[in-house]
């Protein structure tokens, strides 16, 4: 918009606004402070002032403020998202945290992994029973995702701090710890197998899950509450018995595995301690013997050198009494140089022995730390395997629940069929009643027609009524008897048919009931067989899994023993090299002492002035 306005206002007189592209670039240069206002002012003074005042208001005041607001809102969002980690309050705090993570010399960082104390400090806003998720760990290691993945894979464990609890998202939270100092060393606990029972709901004999199951049974089967409760208790008893047997077997297997692992680990640690104690005592004795021998040798050599030097000095004084002062000074300087060199070599050799001994102690401590880390990883791997076993048990429980749901569906279908039979029976009864009512209506209509005919005959045969009245009465009586007999017979037949139909319906009901009982019995047998097969398969899977875990534990212990043997072999080779080096140093020192004695003898012979010249 400003490019088009400038092109229209100043394009005819100012070359910088001659085209739209030039006008756009000129406005951009003006925004950066690289533009001469005189040409535009001469071209159109009023338009120039208005144009550039609006330009400055829009660009500098509105656009830059919008950018500033965007930046501030973004930083505010980052602060709110990092608030759970205890950071984001100031830029300096975030930079300080990054420096702590990246600084290899920091006390709270080990191998670029934030220490537990640093993690606890960063998640101070979390509640004591909060859960440290994988996303939180990736946030803590945001500078290096590879380190984050390695941390999540290698250090999946539950850590209880003195002030709060942090835990991997795959496991349940333990009880909160007592409040204490943040800098205290965290305690590692293995609560992978914690599976607390759900508390019973107050105010009733059933928990929420039992109430839901009871309502589902009553709704699906249409049974009374007492029947549903009895069925639920039977199911719970059966499942509880199977679950208790499975739990007991798993607990026995787990206890045996723990005992074997503890015994094997204790034996390995005892052997390692004995080996380390023996090696350390041997090294100490060897170092003490070497140091004593060196001191004796150095003391003897220094005493002999002192006596010999005193004798040589006396002889030199006697022999060189008539020599020049320069020769005496040169001899004294050479003697002092030799003595200082000898003292420095002895001191250096002593310091080398002390430093080598310190390095050996440090290396042994590092080996012990590595052994502790290996044992922790072994414990974590066993915990993960047992977690898998718990998952398989839960899956078996789900399968059992599905089987029971299928049985409930079949029972509901059978009840629907029974209800349909009753409806058919009611329909047949209603049809029979309607037929009987129709027949009664027919008879009544016949009687009505007969009465009408009788009245007509009376009207037509009124003259011969007296002659035929007797015969007519007799006919009427006979007709009435016949009609009564026929009606009684028809009613008897209908009653017999109705009773037959009722008996057939009752028989059908009994047959359906027997069929339902047989189906329920078969379904129960099938369910029992399926549950037995599932228990057998679960037992076999548990046995195989425990055997596999025992093999893995044995392999890991063998690998640890081989690794320790290699480390001890390397350490022994290093000690042998150090001893060889010390022997070479002693030989070099003896050679230097011999050379110095030769030099003293050479000075005694009086050849120093010629050598110095």
Automatic annotation (TrEMBL):
Subcellular location: Membrane
Cellular component, GO annotation: membrane
Keyword Coiled coil: yes
SUPFAM superfamilies for this protein: Apolipoprotein A-I (SSF58113)
Taxonomic superkingdom: Eukaryota
Main localization (coarse): membrane
Domain Polycystin cation channel PKD1/PKD2 per the UniProt entry, residue ranges: 2-77
InterPro entries referenced in this protein's UniProt entry, alphabetically: PKD1_2_channel
Coiled coil stretches, renumbered: 306-381, 532-559
Keywords assigned: Coiled coil, Membrane, Transmembrane, Transmembrane helix
Transmembrane segments: 48-75
Record's keyword annotation contains Coiled coil: yes
Bilayer disposition of the protein: Multi-pass membrane protein
Protein name: Polycystin cation channel PKD1/PKD2 domain-containing protein
């Amino acid at each position: 918009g400003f490019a088009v306005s400038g092109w229209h206002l100043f394009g005819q007189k100012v070359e910088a606004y001659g085209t739209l592209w030039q006008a756009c670039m000129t406005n951009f240069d003006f925004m950066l402070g690289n533009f001469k206002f005189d040409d535009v002012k001469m071209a159109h003074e009023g338009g120039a002032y208005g144009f550039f005042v609006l330009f400055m208001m829009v660009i500098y005041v509105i656009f830059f403020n919008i950018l500033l607001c965007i930046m501030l809102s973004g930083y505010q969002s980052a602060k709110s998202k990092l608030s759970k980690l205890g950071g984001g309050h100031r830029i300096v705090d975030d930079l300080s945290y990054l420096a702590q993570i990246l600084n290899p010399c920091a006390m709270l960082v080990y191998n670029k992994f934030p220490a537990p104390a640093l993690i606890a400090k960063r998640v101070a806003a979390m509640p004591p029973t909060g859960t440290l998720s994988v996303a939180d760990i990736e946030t803590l290691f945001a500078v290096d995702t590879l380190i984050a993945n390695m941390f999540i894979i290698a250090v999946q464990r539950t850590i209880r701090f003195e002030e709060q609890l942090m835990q991997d998202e795959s496991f349940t939270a333990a009880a909160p710890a007592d409040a204490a100092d943040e800098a205290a060393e965290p305690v590692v606990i293995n609560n992978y197998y914690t599976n607390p029972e759900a508390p019973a709901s107050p105010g009733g004999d059933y928990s929420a899950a039992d109430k839901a199951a009871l309502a589902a049974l009553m709704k699906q089967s249409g049974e009374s509450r007492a029947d549903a409760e009895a069925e639920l208790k039977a199911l719970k008893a059966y499942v509880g018995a199977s679950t208790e047997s499975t739990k007991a077997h798993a607990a026995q297997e787990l206890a045996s595995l723990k005992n074997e692992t503890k015994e094997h680990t204790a034996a390995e640690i005892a052997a390692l301690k004995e080996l380390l104690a023996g090696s350390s005592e041997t090294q100490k004795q060897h170092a003490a013997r070497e140091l004593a021998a060196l001191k004796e040798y150095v003391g003897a050599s220094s005493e002999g050198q002192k006596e010999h030097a005193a004798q040589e000095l006396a002889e030199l004084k006697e022999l060189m009494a008539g020599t020049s002062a320069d020769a005496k000074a040169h001899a004294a300087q050479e003697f002092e140089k030799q003595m200082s060199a000898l003292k420095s070599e002895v001191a250096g050799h002593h310091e080398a022995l002390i430093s080598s001994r310190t390095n050996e102690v440090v290396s042994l401590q590092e080996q012990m730390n590595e052994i502790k880390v290996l044992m922790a990883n072994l414990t974590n791997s066993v915990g993960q395997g047992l977690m898998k076993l718990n998952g398989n048990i839960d899956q078996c429980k789900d399968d059992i629940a599905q089987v029971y749901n299928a049985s409930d569906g079949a029972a509901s279908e059978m009840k629907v069929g029974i209800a349909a039979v009753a409806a058919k029976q009611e329909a047949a009864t209603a049809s029979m009643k309607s037929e009987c009512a129709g027949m009664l209506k027919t008879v009544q209509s016949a009687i009505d027609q007969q009465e009408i005919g009788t009245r007509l005959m009376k009207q037509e045969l009124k003259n011969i009524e007296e002659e035929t009245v007797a015969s007519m009465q007799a006919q009427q009586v006979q007709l009435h008897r016949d009609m009564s007999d026929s009606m009684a017979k028809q009613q008897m037949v209908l009653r017999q048919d109705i009773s037959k139909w009722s008996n057939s319906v009752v028989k059908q009901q009994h047959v359906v009931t027997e069929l339902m009982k047989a189906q329920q019995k078969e379904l129960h047998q099938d369910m029992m067989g399926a549950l037995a097969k599932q228990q057998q398969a679960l037992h076999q899977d548990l046995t195989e899994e425990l055997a596999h875990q025992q093999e893995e534990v044995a392999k890991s212990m063998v690998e640890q023993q081989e690794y320790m043997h290699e480390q001890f072999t390397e350490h022994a080779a290093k000690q042998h090299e150090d001893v060889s080096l010390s022997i070479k140093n002693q030989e070099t020192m003896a050679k230097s002492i011999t050379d110095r004695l030769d030099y003293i003898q050479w000075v005694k012979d009086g050849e120093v002035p010629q050598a110095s010249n």
